[in-house]
Design brief:
Nucleotidyltransferase, domain 5, alpha/beta, Ubiquitin-like (UB roll), 26% strand, six-stranded mixed sheet
Length: 610
């Protein structure tokens, strides 16, 4: 075996030892650096840029510089996934490749519920009358407990019976039977804690709640460390085909969850062992990867997915909470409509209303759900990560320096932008991209087919055809223009057509018009930050003239929180999952028609009444 090579990454001053021949991207992953890699290392996205400072590697080779600009090549940029190290090296991670404090949506609601968590605490009473008979020992009784005898291990039995002090037990019914998950000395019935987690494709968010009172004690969020393996679900499924890739993704998801858990317990000043219940929501692929299951079957159209919630011990999940605690995973509907979408529905309340409602959550994957208390139907669309700023030449996550809102003067085509935290522009995030697209349509910069109109101010010829300058290089943190070019528009038009086409399929299947919809629920960051007028002007969503619009925030986290606080809500989540119809667009003939019609701006005339 050859001597390992040391790789130093600036400006983090992070050093890692790797085998010679390792790609720089794998070195970045081993170093635990949050880093852009949209395609997961396939050499397609050109987002994993690093700057070679010194050392033996193949930086500068045709493969390492393919698709980079002359400026980047002259300044020693290379693609991390296509550059291999052969000796000690140093690299700079440029500002556009860094992931720094992204804006993560923690806005959630706790749906109305009957407060009845699955985990409760009881004082242990030693009683002469048999209550919990233990062979050869005194009988035990739990104060104010009713129900069948909780299960316990022999070690727990001996501990309880031989204890000479007042004790408290924590009982969970998550597994369908009462089960003692913790024993404490003294009266600790006033402090009982659980955590709700949303494990998203890009981010992880969580809340820690006092189960006795329902009070939120702390909130925390972070990035899903799987992102260096690729942004899109299909990319991660490809990685997970091999057992070692599947284990890497599982370990990354668990580590991401544990980092959030660590911040939650620190924020509430409690021990990890005090957390005795966890409710977890995520899309179907994320749940499979978190559980270490092979997700490759989810690539096959009309694959049946079990619609029951999954439960397992925290020790088996690898979560840093009480090891005997149960983890409850919200039920999924289909291969791409998971517990996060079921949580969205329960958080919105659309399943309890007589009005016909539409719920839309467009992130890395898109889910659209139509219905009311009588029926529910769902589709999923491969919206891709464009609405999160990924896959775009100058796209970036919603973090400091991201252009988040754009206006364009319809006459002069002068651009006005705002950025997150008012920082110097680094790129453009999803909400800014939607704003820019809608503004370019209104200003006549784009025609009805999504092509640039030659001769309009700001439109120029670039290496990939016509492009439009949003922010000139002298006003950016990267020293390069922030532009939208023809490939960006093709990707955005494809994403827009997929989203609008998905809505169109549901309307067509159920013979509804846009005027029949009374409520539109916009979930996630898409609903929180994207302008509704811009969404319809560009044609991402139809116009619903009779509908009230609602931003529901992080519905996935809302659903997990509801499950944490109410056993009735757990049953409700399961009912919603089991009765929801799923239409697989991969094999649906109507989707081709709807998608094709949506490739024009704004789209079908009947979807955009004036």
């Amino acid at each position: 075996m050859t001597d390992p090579a040391s790789v130093l990454f600036h400006p983090l001053n992070r050093i890692v030892s790797v085998e010679r021949g390792t790609t720089v991207l794998d070195a970045v992953r081993k170093a635990g650096i949050q880093f852009e890699s949209i395609c997961g290392g396939k050499g397609e996205c050109n987002k994993c840029k690093v700057i070679h400072v010194r050392g033996k590697c193949d930086a500068g080779s045709p493969l390492s510089t393919k698709g980079l600009s002359p400026y980047e090549i002259a300044h020693h940029y290379c693609r991390a996934c296509q550059t291999r190290v052969f000796g000690d090296c140093e690299f700079v991670i440029p500002v556009e490749s860094q992931i720094d404090s992204p804006r993560i949506l923690l806005s959630y609601t706790i749906p109305p519920h009957h407060h009845d968590p699955a985990v409760k605490k009881y004082l242990v009473l030693h009683d002469a009358e048999p209550a919990i008979p233990l062979p050869g020992h005194r009988s035990l009784k739990l104060a104010n407990y009713t129900g069948i005898r909780p299960q316990m291990t022999r070690t727990q039995q001996e501990h309880l019976v031989n204890a000479g002090t007042l004790q408290t037990v924590t009982v969970s019914t998550t597994a369908g039977y009462p089960d003692i998950v913790r024993i404490e000395d003294g009266d600790t019935t006033s402090s009982c804690y659980g955590i709700a987690l949303d494990i998203g494709t890009t981010t992880v968010a969580g809340v820690l709640i006092d189960l006795g009172t329902g009070k939120v004690c702390s909130e925390a969020s972070g990035l899903n460390l799987q992102i260096t393996h690729g942004e899109e679900l299909l990319t991660r499924i490809g990685v997970a085909r091999k057992s070692e890739g599947r284990e890497q993704l599982r370990e990354s998801a668990v580590r991401s969850a544990n980092e959030v858990i660590s911040r939650l317990v620190a924020g509430a000043n409690i021990s990890n062992d005090a957390v005795c219940d966890v409710c977890l929501a995520g899309n179907t692929v994320m749940q499979y990867l978190f559980l270490g299951r092979d997700p490759s079957l989810l690539e096959i159209a009309n694959t049946e997915v079990p619609r029951a919630p999954v439960t397992l011990r925290a020790r088996d999940a690898g979560l840093h909470v009480n090891p005997d605690a149960w983890v409850y995973c919200l039920p999924a509907v289909s291969r791409f409509v998971g517990g996060d979408a079921v949580g969205d529905v329960v958080a919105s309340g659309m399943h309890l209303s007589g009005d016909i409602s539409l719920l839309i959550d467009l992130g890395t994957n898109g889910e659209v759900i139509l219905g009311n208390r009588e029926w529910l139907a769902s589709v999923s669309c491969a919206s891709g990560p464009a609405f999160e700023g990924a896959g775009i030449t100058c796209g970036m996550r919603a973090m400091a320096g991201a252009v988040d809102h754009v206006t364009i003067d319809p006459v002069s085509c002068a651009v006005t932008c705002t950025t997150i935290e008012n920082a110097t522009s680094r790129g453009i995030c999803g909400s800014g991209l939607i704003d820019a697209a809608a503004a370019m349509v209104a200003a006549g910069i784009l025609d009805f087919s999504g092509r640039f109109v030659e001769g309009r101010p700001g439109v120029r010829e670039g290496p990939d055809g016509l492009e439009f300058v949003l922010v000139p290089k002298e006003m950016t943190a990267t020293g390069r223009d922030i532009i939208i070019n023809r490939p960006d528009l093709l990707y955005l038009m494809d994403t827009k057509a997929a989203a609008c086409g998905a809505v169109g399929v549901l309307l067509k299947k159920y013979r509804l018009t846009v005027r029949d919809i009374r409520h539109v629920y916009l979930a996630g960051g898409f609903g929180e930050y994207a302008g509704r007028e811009e969404l319809t002007r560009f044609g991402i969503l139809p116009k619903f003239p009779q509908a009230a619009f609602h931003a529901t925030g992080n519905g996935s986290l809302s659903g997990a929180t509801a499950a944490l606080l109410s056993q009735e809500k757990r049953e409700e989540l399961t009912r919603v999952a089991r009765r929801m119809v799923y239409i697989d667009l991969l094999v649906d003939a109507d989707f081709i028609e709807e998608y094709t019609a949506a490739l024009y701006i704004p789209g079908k005339p009947e979807y955009f009444p004036d």
